[in-house]
User: What shape does this take?
Amino acid sequence: MADAPVSVRGMNDLLPPDSGKWQHLERTCRDVFARYGYLEARPPVVEHTELFVRGVGEGSDIVGKEMYTFADRSERSLTLRPELTAGLARAYIEHNMATKEAVTRWWSIGPVFRYEAVNTGRYRQFYQIDCEAYGVGEPTLDAELIGMLHALYTQLGVTPLTILVNNVGKGDDRGRYREALVAYFTPQVDALCADCKRRLQVNPLRILDCKVDGCKAIVARAPSILDYLGDDARAHFATVQATLTALGVPFVVEPRLVRGLDYYTGTVFELTTTAGNLGSQSTIVAGGRYDDMIGELGGPATPAIGFGIGVERTVLCMPGEPASYAPRIDLFIAAMGPAARIKATALAHQLRTAGVTVEVEHREVGFKAQFRRADKLGARLSLALGESELATGAAKLKDMAARTETPVDLADLVAAVTAALGR
Ligand code: ATP
Ligand code: MG
Assistant: This one.
């Protein structure tokens, strides 16, 4: 016999009951984002490689070593998106959004692809949920966005939650800080990991984000970006913090937070948690300002800010077993014999039209096995249909938890069931 097929390493199936937990996260995001005016956008999974090289940045780990890049049949270089921001920025530019509205707020969800070392919370296909706001450079928006994440994760019950914020400056501030970092790391280059040796050449800021212990110890004494910020960045950061305080959103200033992507300017932030025991994968959301990207990609100069939620990591730290997120079955109809099964199917059809969630036992098995399944499914009510029920048109509606039975007329079943469900 041929070997059974297996999935690609780092690319997972999402199946029930886990999918119920994902759906809860997605529903909560949709609700929360809507309250803040974010509308959904869905760019394609594949883009021209060039977009990520220019958008995410050549010095980033993503472009350096993580992209799934291939030539299509016309020898175009295409890439499976490694993140959502660049594709959304391309769409914003391509659809001339800046001429249509002064402020654009989009959210998006979908799979992204990175060739990295697989671990808990680190996969090669994973999902991100992004929010991006274009057209506003003012710092109160930064705080609004971070406040929205706080509201979202509070609603999801993820605790404890730490919100780290920093400002990575732009232009000259960044240049001077970069020089200071090179001066600091160069004499210690031998103690850095192989990745950081490379980063020192191409993107020294990225060393601050290294997860290797030896590098972390060196990073702890590195110069702080906050000593290199110009007046504008300093004032911007102060207002972000004052606004977060006004919102009652707790945060921690982390001067070594730089983010791995090249495109950030000014405000950056991360949400981390010890829930879910994710270890070095404890960052569940990351984001920041990228005021230069739209212009650099060839669009009109447009300030922008956004974040990416790591869906798998977030689900791992949401409380409760996946099964606790499963939709509840309102009524289980057990049936004995072909005629009862037809009746059960018809009654269920009617009930579902009235908004009731119903499971019918279609298999030819004994009542005992049928009720075992009703219990396992966690049905709130059950109904048994056999020959005598068909003959009399009357049956008993059972409350599965209370173990009580109420006589019902099958002709009035919809009313009886909705009443029993308290609807
Ligand atoms: P890390 O430092 O953990 O590699 P990152 O800085 O590369 O993360 P971002 O590009 O900012 O991550 O992506 C946003 C979020 O997506 C992260 O905070 C994380 O929750 C999630 N994420 C990133 N890489 C992976 C992955 N390989 N598998 C699962 N989730 C991931
Ligand atoms: Mg990464």
Summary: The chain has three domains: 18-168+250-317, 170-228, 328-420. Residues 170-228 form one domain. The first helix runs from residue 18 to 35.
